[in-house]
Structures are given as structure tokens and as C-alpha cells.
Amino acid sequence: MRVRLIAAALVLALTGCGTDSASTPSAPASTAIGDATVEIKNFTFTPQLLTVAVGTTVTWKFTDTAKHNVKASDKSFASTDLSDGATFTHTFDKPGEFPYLCSIHQYMTGTITVR
Hints:
- This protein is mostly beta strands and 115 residues long.
- Helices cover 12% and strands 36% of the residues.
- The protein has a single domain (27-114), classed as Immunoglobulin-like (Sandwich).
- It contains 1 helix and 9 strands.
- The strands form 2 sheets. A 5-stranded mixed sheet has the order 1-4-9-8-6, with no helix packed on it.
- The protein is globular and about 35 Å long.
């Protein structure tokens, strides 16, 4: 009986282990219905991962005193260098995954998923 309890405890303990990144996202994610906003503050895009419907307009709101920009990896959209109080918008008219970054601070990245 004791061996069965130890075996059962071990199975339960190992069930929670793993590297399934889908269950533990490394970045804040959001799903938007209608138009959506990504805030640029403290050298971060928030949310970093955003899912929207086809036809959604996404507005990037620059609330940092440092200049930043938004540039799609596939070059489908790009802003100029903007800072505090400025906005940039893009309407997503086709499904897909659209990674982007700030080309000034290339560690600043985000992804818009359009369904």
C-alpha cells in the first residue's frame, strides 16, 4: 500500500512538470474585440502579444519620453520615430501573425495575431 501511495504522489508531482510554453506565456497577452490599443511605456509594448479580428484598427500610444517606433517584420506597417503623447494606427485587413519591433531599441518586440 505504501509503495502505491509513493508511486501515485510521484505521478502527480511529475504531471505538473514540463516545458509547455503555451501554458506559461513569457509575455503578457491580450485578445481584443473591436479596436485595440498597445501602450508604449518604460521601453515596453503592452500588451506584447495581442490577438484581434480581421478589420481591427490597432493604435500604438506612445507614453514614453524617449523616442520609439513600430516596424513590422514583414514591412506591412511602420511608424516614424514618436514620443510622449503621439499615436500610430494600422488596420489589419488580413489574417496572420505580424511580429514588430522598435528599430531604435530592438529588444522591444511585440506580435499582433489577426484571426
